[in-house]
Amino acid sequence: MLMGKVVGSVISTRKSDALVGNKFMIVEVCESMKSEGQRLIAIDKIGAGIGECVLVAQGSAARVGSGMENVPVDAAIVGIIDD
Amino acid sequence: MLMGKVVGSVISTRKSDALVGNKFMIVEVCESMKSEGQRLIAIDKIGAGIGECVLVAQGSAARVGSGMENVPVDAAIVGIIDD
Amino acid sequence: MLMGKVVGSVISTRKSDALVGNKFMIVEVCESMKSEGQRLIAIDKIGAGIGECVLVAQGSAARVGSGMENVPVDAAIVGIIDD
Amino acid sequence: MLMGKVVGSVISTRKSDALVGNKFMIVEVCESMKSEGQRLIAIDKIGAGIGECVLVAQGSAARVGSGMENVPVDAAIVGIIDD
Amino acid sequence: MLMGKVVGSVISTRKSDALVGNKFMIVEVCESMKSEGQRLIAIDKIGAGIGECVLVAQGSAARVGSGMENVPVDAAIVGIIDD
Question: Principal place where this protein is found (chains A, B, C, D, E) (predicted)?
Fold first, then answer.
């Protein structure tokens, strides 16, 4: 997983039916992490807010353990890191 | 996922039978995203047009949620980002 | 997927039994694509020749849609791009 | 797999239910490895301590062989390298 | 797949039970390949020796076709390249 900071979100009205109801957060990868400073879009299922530091799972990991097996996502916020 | 802009398309007449009927779009990754400025080829199932800003799912995510389990693709346009 | 040019092939006599009968092509990633100029080895199931411009699917995508579910490959030529 | 050194850990109180009970270690990739010097977060199921040199499996590999098929993780410490 | 040269091996006494009996080889990626000059750890099921030039499959490909579906590995030597 990588650690990142939620810096915003994006809205997509026209999207895959399987994606309806999901929030797309913009996550900026934390310093010293792999891909430092770069951004990716992750689904948020745990209610992370802008400015929070989060754990992001990538690849097929983004779809396991939360009933999202059939949702076309490759990144998900799976935890909020304690201060 | 990553955000990118559709900048063109490619035609492949000789291809895997499983790919017949799909459109191959050239997507350029948006600024500040991971792999910024680089291009990849993604299948389009939602009717994105050239110049539109899109959400691209990579890896096995490209094949779930849209009946493409047996189609050899590793990137798909899954949403169009609102202006 | 990525676009690349077939620039050669490699021979492997001692290999996994599951790989017997496959051709290993050296593909050089096209300009402006992600990983531009770099090379990878892809299985060819559609008869691409040296010098041809091809579409390469990576990851598990390389094994779907062509009866290769049990073949240990992570890249496959899935289309030849029209001139 | 990659070789890395355990340099710390992170705590996440609010997380995916499927992640409860797991330890999140910060692993710094060893010199000369791919992504040298960069850090990632890996689940630890074998009791690695800070300062130890470990083997990390990434992607879906992080979830096989240890009853974690439904845990949203993309990196796991799977071995401790002998001195 | 990538082409690399076997440059050594690592020993891990404390490891995932599912990994027992496997050899961990250090492979250095060949010139002009993606990730040129970088190293990764791959399982060897075909008896490659140090100094040999090999084909490495990454990701889930490392676990198919050789009864390793439940072994947490993300890279495997699947062929030895002829001289």
Answer: other
Determine contact: D13 vs chain E, CB below 8 A: no
- Which structure tokens are listed for E22? 């496997």
Can you tell me the distance from the alpha carbon of D61 to that of E24, in angstroms, rounded to the nearest whole number?
Answer: 15
Q: Is B16 on the interface with C (CB under 8 A)?
A: yes
> For residues C32 and C30, what is the distance between their CA atoms, to the nearest angstrom?
6
Interface residue B27 vs chain C (CB under 8 A): no
What tokens appear for D15 in the block? 């997380």
For the segment A60-78, the average pLDDT, to the nearest whole number, is 95
Tell whether D20 lies on the interface with A, counting CB pairs under 8 A. no
Q: How many interchain CB pairs under 8 A, A with B?
A: 90
The residues pairing with C30 across neighbouring beta strands, listed in sequence order, are none
- Say whether residue B71 is in contact with chain C using an 8 A CB cutoff: yes
Higher pLDDT, C59 or A37: C59
Structural domain containing residue A58: 2-13+20-80
Decide if B39 contacts B23 (C-beta within 8 A). Answer: no
Structural domains of chain A, count = 1
Lookup result for tokens 């676990």 = E63
- Report the percentage of chain E scoring pLDDT > 70: 100
User: Among A19, A39, A75, whose Cβ lies nearest the Cβ of B78?
Assistant: A19
Tell me if ipTM is over 0.85. yes
pLDDT bucket at C46, cuts 50 / 70 / 90: very high
The end-to-end CA distance of chain B, in Å, is 18
Q: Chain centroid to CA E36: how far?
A: 16
For E38, nearest residue in chain D (alpha carbons)? D34
CA atoms within 13 A on the CB side of E81: 21
Answer yes or no: are the C-beta atoms of E25 and E77 closer than 8 Å. yes
State whether D32 and E13 contact (CB < 8 Å). Answer: no
Q: Which of E7, E11, E12, E44 to mutate to test the interface with D (most CBs of D within 10 A)?
A: E12
Mean pLDDT of chain C: 95
Euclidean distance between CA atoms E67 and A59, whole angstroms: 23
If you count them, how many residues does chain A have? Answer: 83
CATH number of the domain to which C44 belongs: 2.40.50.220
pLDDT tens-digit readout, E19-73: 999 999 999 999 889 888 899 999 998 999 999 999 999 999 999 988 899 999 9
The one-letter amino acid at B83: D
